[in-house]
């Protein structure tokens, strides 16, 4: 039996928060003839690093939003930056896990914001229309810090030939 070439690689995009030492933000695995499996670490509402060379002080750093929907938007922005860093698109996502502290189907549910993000109303050409990846919504007692109420973990496959 012929062994297929395989390659696993990790990435920490500069426009997302730095990961803890035990993980990378994105891991890809390339299969022959070139399809790539992408695993994105759970993204939180952590503002990306301020890469502005004119930054004067730490006071200019952004903080975690208090509003739940704003946390979802920031986590999705971090997710999108991770996907773009490895050449993946929203349409390549096949599995999503939402972790929600104090989940409530009406008051604290990321579904609406996620669908808006997925449908890509910002016009960058990555319009997925009615496409919806498999997903799970997991109520959580707490995430890595008390300030975070939402985390999204994602799997995607980048086709070898687009």
What does this structure look like?
This protein is α+β, with helices and mostly antiparallel strands and 162 residues long. The protein has one domain: RutC-like (60s Ribosomal Protein L30, Chain: A), CATH 3.30.1330. The protein contains two helices and six strands; from the N terminus they run βββαβαββ. The protein has a six-stranded mixed beta sheet. α2 links the parallel β4 and β5. The mean pLDDT is 85. InterPro entries: RutC-like_sf, YjgF/YER057c/UK114. This is YjgF-like protein. Pfam families: Ribonuc_L-PSP.
Features:
162 residues, alpha+beta, 60s Ribosomal Protein L30, Chain: A, 6-stranded mixed β-sheet, 2 helices, 17% helix
Q: What's this model, at a glance?
A:
This protein is α+β, with helices and mostly antiparallel strands and 162 residues long.
CATH level 4 superfamily: RutC-like
- The neighbouring-strand order within the major sheet is 1-2-3-6-4-5
Radius of gyration: 17 Å
In total, the number of domains comes to: 1
Q: Give the CATH class.
A: Alpha Beta
Q: Termini separation (Å)?
A: 29 Å
What's the SSE blueprint?
Elements: E1 7-11, E2 26-30, E3 36-43, H1 68-85, E4 93-101, H2 111-119, E5 134-140, E6 150-158
Parallel strand pairs: 4-5
Antiparallel strand pairs: 1-2, 2-3, 3-6, 4-6
InterPro entries: RutC-like_sf, YjgF/YER057c/UK114
Region (Disordered): 1-29, 43-67
Pfam family, one: Ribonuc_L-PSP
